[in-house]
Amino acid sequence: MPVITDFSLPSSASALQLSAEKPVTFLSFHASPDPNTGKPWCPDVVAALPHLQEVFSTPQAPQVAFINVGQRDQWKDPSNVYRTKWNVNAVPSLVRYELVDGSVKETGRLAEAQILDRGRLSKFVGDRSASI
Is this structure's pTM higher than 0.85? Predict the structure, then answer.
């Protein structure tokens, strides 16, 4: 499934649109591109992007939305919306949400170097029952 780069993030995880037909989605939180280089300001994000694009590029891969968290100073602000509303404390972070008993729940998360482990990343994305 293609990577969604223009995803309109709702105000909270509970407002994500999941259904019986689409019971799982992933959000991948990244450093925003540096206006001077066009690349994310965080080297961990630069390293993780090829891994994320590879694992989510197969036709059977679940949906993933790439979310930019802002420039370094915006990200470091403790009141950053991704820190406060989405509980994201590191970039990159890949978070899995699933429909569980009619409610949207976070069912797993990988952050920073965990994403660079291709085996762990593939299992996390492919195994809906694993909570890592």
Answer: yes
